[in-house]
Design brief:
The protein starts with 5 loop residues before the first helix and ends in a 6-residue tail after the last helix. The chain is built from six helices and no strands. Helix 3 crosses helix 4 (69-89) and helix 4 runs antiparallel to helix 5 (93-100). The radius of gyration is 14 Å and the shape is globular. The protein has one domain (6-111). It is 67% helix and 0% strand. The mean pLDDT is 89.
Length: 117
């Protein structure tokens, strides 16, 4: 469901293309990568995006619609907003911004929020 059907393959392909636009070096997400995540040093945000991608595939299937990059982007923005509030309440914005650094241009432009790193 998360990997093998043509719809999922197309979804993951569009996700990797989009992530590469923001400086991620993701040429291909293997079955292992999608199921278990990546183990590289700077993969926290990438693994989070993979989890959100699997959620979008699951949710889309439940609603009988195709998973799209647009749905994933909306979920990423929603997640970013929630994590921003948590970081602000915990007075720990430095770690939050470090995690989200590569996608800040995307979330800032979409949400209209501009932060200094």
């Amino acid at each position: 469901m998360f990997i093998y059907c043509d719809t999922s393959k197309h979804f993951w392909s569009s996700v990797t293309e989009w992530l590469n636009e923001f400086g991620f070096d993701v040429r291909y997400l293997s079955t292992f990568d999608i199921v278990f995540g990546l183990t590289s040093k700077d993969s926290l945000l990438l693994n989070h995006v993979i989890i959100l991608g699997k959620y979008i595939i699951y949710q889309s299937r439940s609603l009988n619609i195709k998973p799209t990059l647009t749905l994933l982007k909306a979920k990423i923005c929603s997640t970013y907003q929630i994590e921003s509030l948590i970081a602000k309440n915990n007075e720990d914005s430095k770690i939050h911004f470090k995690k989200w650094q590569k996608l800040l241009p995307f979330v800032d432009s979409l949400l209209g929020i501009f932060f200094k790193i």
